[in-house]
Design brief:
It contains 26 helices and no strands. The protein is an all-alpha fold and 670 residues long. It folds into three domains: 293 residues, no CATH class; 147 residues, no CATH class; 161 residues. The two termini are 13 Å apart.
Length: 670
């Protein structure tokens, strides 16, 4: 499933088109930015009125706690409150041990960093461990700046207030005017169905590139909706199936040829529109007759007919699921008990290596700025914590966003210090400035993962620059030091992660592609065909692969140990999208009993080939191995082809389509 090495383009973005796509208005974006502005302005007003220290951090905490739907904000707020409470208590305990003993403080900081980062990767409550570790280490560095133990204790206790104020404000605001996750799930599903219907009517490509990703994200939003509405829990199972069917429809559309007859496209569009209306109005959609389905697809081409049949079958399942959901009383999906630690927590050395690399970078940052007696660049420690990710490409990507955002926010903040703050006379004017700056940073922060962190960092740098004291700021030294600290932290993380046990984002992409191939193979077997969530797992794995391939561009040839084709396993996510859609077409066909065994043997052989390809695509697989020939139906089904029934012809056409897509994407020798 590999094109030639020279046919695999490395991810390159035209900057203007990329920014235009990322910054364009999207449903719910204006409301999210408005909530951010309200929360940040309230936090700054409270901090200024009551002279709470670190007002800039209070404003930035709003970005971290939440601009998403109400349930997510509530969950993040609870996690943050718990983590900071634990961190403050441990900090006070550590002060009794190491306040006057630097030789003891350094090992405790290193151990705290290692344990926190290790648990972040391996523990179910990873965010709690991360925040607690970060605050604990940061509080230990304050001993150098506040030598009085009494003053230090008071300051650390204020840190708890610094966190609880934005947590309380953000949670209350989002509960009052935030997105209800249940309504958000329904509205997004309706929008995706209508987008698909519009694309079918026009017969063009999907106008929403992130359609499948949004469908996958609906699962998490739907799970959080159950936190606020207990009545939804009994419908969790059927809602998951509905979302999976929606993701399947969006994937199948990729395979539908552009020249399909208008009658078939319009009927499929009408089906999608009716399902969207039923979801929006809470009514059961009218059933579609089988005769209408047959008339619509009659005369379609070899490539279009099985896809149209599969999409019609998927919309029928969607109709039925919506109708059954209205009846109520559905058993909820069985919840599997979640272990406290991941299964390979102590077996996989990658977890401990990642924690050790982050610890080395954090301690190096602390030693450097302490040795230089330049405490203004202490943001280097914060940078090391927050840009630490699983692969070098992810780390450099986040570091790039952090540097870009910090420079932009610092520049705007500096200009405000010189030209705007001297003209301000009261807190109302300051709040107006904060609201405008938050809106600008928030607009970027509400984009995709490829750009959102830059908006957060721009807002943070602006807050640090403008909110230095309880009056107008005129000192440009602090923003300069903050930016230098951010640059130092990024350099340290890049060096450490590229030298010690380097991990490539392409390896993460290969893992995702391998998982998708393996799941596709499972779909073709009797055991996995009806397993809930299997199709959704494929769509999710393909989305992850596309994201990691894009992030791999940030590795800047720092890991030149293997050729690009070998590191990706040679798989193109675009060709695999089509193979996945063709597999969905096959599993939607119910073969006649007379040939069920023939179909089953053929599907099992195809599944075995896909699993073999998954082994090659996985990190460490032999990307340059000889071609694995996929099985083609040929002789076994040939005697039935001329006088086959409609069901048999549909099964044959579906499998021929899958083999055609496999043959089109099959790897060539390197």
């Amino acid at each position: 499933m590999m094109p030639r090495a020279d046919a695999i383009p490395r991810p390159r973005w035209a900057l203007l088109s990329f920014l235009r796509e990322e910054l364009r208005p999207r449903p719910g974006r204006v409301a999210a930015v408005l909530r951010l502005s309200i929360c940040c302005t309230l936090c700054v007003a409270i901090g200024m009125l009551y002279r709470i220290p670190l007002t800039a951090y209070m404003a930035y905490a709003v970005f971290v706690i939440g601009w998403r739907e109400a349930a997510s904000t509530l969950l993040t707020g609870v996690v943050a409150a718990l983590a900071f409470t634990i961190a403050v208590a441990l900090s006070l305990l550590f002060y009794t041990l190491d306040a006057s003993e630097p030789a003891l403080r350094l090992p405790l900081m290193a151990v705290s960093t290692f344990i926190g980062i290790f648990l972040t990767r391996t523990m179910a409550l990873g965010p709690v461990a991360f925040l607690a570790s970060f605050v604990l280490v940061l509080s230990q560095t304050l001993i150098d700046e506040i030598p009085s133990l009494e003053a230090l204790t008071h300051f650390v206790l204020w840190l708890w207030v610094v966190v609880m104020v934005p947590v309380t404000v953000t949670v209350l605001v989002n509960l009052l005017i935030g997105e209800n996750p249940s309504r958000l799930t329904r509205r997004t599903a309706v929008r995706l169905l209508r987008t698909l219907a519009a694309a079918l009517r026009r017969g063009d490509a999907m106008p929403l590139p992130r359609a499948e990703a949004e469908a996958v994200e609906l699962i998490e939003v739907r799970e959080r909706a159950g936190m606020l509405d207990r009545s939804l829990r009994e419908k969790a199972g059927i809602d998951t199936k509905l979302i999976e069917t929606l993701a399947e429809l969006l994937t199948l559309y990729r395979l539908l040829p552009s020249g399909v007859a208008a009658e078939a496209r319009l009927q499929l569009a009408e089906d999608c529109e009716q399902c969207a209306t039923a979801l929006e109005e809470g009514v059961a959609p009218a059933p579609r007759t089988e005769s209408a389905v047959g008339n619509d697809i009659r005369g379609l081409s070899f490539e279009a007919k099985p896809v149209a049949v599969a999409m019609a079958e998927a919309t029928a399942r969607l109709r039925d699921g919506i109708a059954r959901r209205l009846i109520g009383g559905h058993p909820s999906a069985a919840r599997s008990a979640k272990a406290l630690l991941v299964p390979d927590a102590f077996r996989n050395p990658a977890h401990s290596r990642f924690a050790l690399k982050t610890t080395i970078a954090v301690m190096a940052a602390y030693i450097i700025y302490s040795g230089l007696d330049w405490h203004g660049i202490s943001t280097s420690i914060t940078t090391c914590f927050f840009v630490a990710l699983g692969s070098l490409g992810e780390t450099i990507h986040k570091a790039t966003l952090r540097i870009t955002g910090a420079l932009a926010g610092g520049l705007v903040g500096g200009l405000c210090i010189v030209y705007v703050l001297p003209e301000m006379t009261d807190i109302g004017q300051l709040c107006l400035l904060i609201a405008v700056a938050t809106a600008l940073g928030g607009w970027v922060a509400t984009g995709s993962d490829l750009i959102s962190y830059a908006g957060m960092q721009a807002a943070f740098a602006f807050f640090l620059t403008v909110l230095q004291d309880y009056g107008p700021s005129t000192d440009l030294t602090e923003p300069r030091d903050r930016v230098v600290g951010i640059l130092l932290g990024n350099v340290l993380m890049t060096v450490v992660f590229s030298v010690l046990w380097p991990s490539s984002a392409v390896d993460r992409a290969r893992s995702s592609l391998s998982m998708a191939l393996r799941t596709l193979g499972g779909l073709l077997t009797d055991e996995a065909t009806g397993k809930p969530g299997s199709r959704l797992a494929v769509v999710r794995a393909l989305g992850e692969a596309r994201r990691f391939v894009a992030i791999a561009a940030f590795e800047l040839r720092m890991l030149p140990t293997r050729a690009w084709l070998e590191r990706t396993g040679g798989f193109s996510s675009g060709s695999l999208d089509r193979v996945a859609a063709a597999t969905f077409v096959v599993v939607n066909q119910e073969p006649p009993a007379a040939v069920a065994q023939i179909f089953r043997r053929h599907d099992q052989a195809t599944a075995a080939w896909l699993v073999a390809c998954a082994d090659r695509a996985a990190p460490g697989g032999t990307g340059a191995a000889a071609i694995l020939e996929p099985p083609f139906p040929g002789e076994a089904l040939a005697p039935f082809a001329d006088h086959a029934s409609a069901g048999l012809r549909a099964g044959i056409e579906a499998r021929e389509l899958l083999q055609s897509e496999i043959k089109r994407a099959v790897p060539v020798p390197i």
